[in-house]
Amino acid sequence: MALTPNGSPIFIQLGQRPDEAGPPISGESTYPDDVAARLAESAKEIIARYPQPRSALLPLLHLVQSEDGYLTKAGIAFCANQLGLTDAEVTAVATFYSMYRREPTGDYLVGVCTNTLCAIMGGDAILEALQDHLGIHAGETTDDGRVTLEHVECNAACDYAPVVMVNWEFFDNQTPSSARDLVDSLRTGEPVVPTRGAPLCTFRQTARVLAGLPDDRPVTVPGQEPAATLAGLRVARRLGMEAPSPDQGTPVPAPTLDGTEPAAVETTKDEPAPGPSATVPPKPGTTETDPSTTDSRD
Predict the structure, then answer these.
(1) Region entry Disordered: which residue ranges (predicted)?
(2) How many CB atoms lie within 10 A of CB 203?
(3) What does the DSSP 8-state code read for residue 36?
(4) Helix/strand number for the chain, H first, E second
(5) Which has the closest alpha carbon to 104: 140, 155, 79?
(6) Which of 106, 231, 236, 260 is close enough to 254 for a disulfide, judged by CB 3.0 to 4.6 Å?
(7) What are the C-alpha distances in Å from 202 to residues 31, 57, 67, 198?
(8) pTM of the prediction?
(9) pLDDT in the model for residue 256
(10) Tens digits of per-residue pLDDT, 149-175?
(11) Strands 169-171, 164-166: parallel, antiparallel or unpaired by DSSP?
(12) How many CA atoms lie within 13 A of 27 on its CB side?
């Protein structure tokens, strides 16, 4: 305990740094007994998969997020008790990753990619259109609790830009108009089908899947026709690019688009960079290395 010069105790309010992004973790401090018991059963299944219990922290954070829709003090304490950690250790991890929410999240987390390519292709316009249409800013939730809007970083779907994600399922090649239709359907309960991947579920159900618990949804939705992009392959063939074999031996030529045997392409393997020189380069205006500058360390 810190004391003032006259011996009076100094009470320090611990919490989030003023410059730390995001709201502090709040909510109730403990779960009701029935909720804690139910979560403990799922936690036991998750922890058993890891050689060290603390390795299960990330999926356990998804587990408690599936209960509350965001991380609460009760969720932090639950994870700490299950893994033999302190609340501070769990909080340090939880606040590092952006997929762990610190505020109540709607049934559908709608993320608009605003990274470079999506922004160029219209991502910024989509985000602005949705903010105006929903009457909220990025990071906020609609009054009906159905949609939380946010901007997200690249989700590795650049060939289909601009991309909108709903609970981490892809909706490709969006426009301001199609994005408005999408959120309207989400709010009214009309079924929507992701461009590819499993059927859409709620944010809390998604959190259970991310925790590693059983997911009985089909891999794809009937009627989907996901198309693999060939743009990168075409560029690779045009430039004569090859991927190294698994043993870093002979390069493996990129397959041809028509299925024929690829033509041999002469390539130069990557060589390690040369080691540091034992001498200093010549001084400007000279042709020989000054012996006095030679580094004798060898």
Answers:
(1) 241-298
(2) 21
(3) H
(4) 9, 6
(5) 140
(6) 236
(7) 22, 22, 12, 12
(8) 0.69
(9) 58
(10) 998 888 888 888 999 999 999 999 999
(11) antiparallel
(12) 21
| Residue 92 φ/ψ, nearest 5 degrees | -60, -40
Domains and CATH numbers, the chain: 17-104+203-219 (1.10.10.1590), 108-201 (3.40.30.10)
Tokens in use for 143? 């009054």
Q: Could you give the maximum distance between any two Cα atoms of the chain, in Å?
A: 87
Residue 25's Cβ-count burial label (10 Å; 0-12, 13-18, 19+) is buried
Helix (H) / strand (E) element for 46: namely helix 33-47
Q: Is the peptide bond before 162 cis (omega within 30 degrees of 0)?
A: yes
Q: Could you give phi then psi for residue 129, rounded to 5 degrees?
A: -65, -40
The residues, any chain, with a CB within 8 Å of residue 100's CB and separated by 6 or more, are 61, 62, 65, 71, 94
How many of the other CB atoms lie within 10 Å of CB of 137? 10
Give the whole-angstrom CA distance, residue 148 versus residue 168: 13
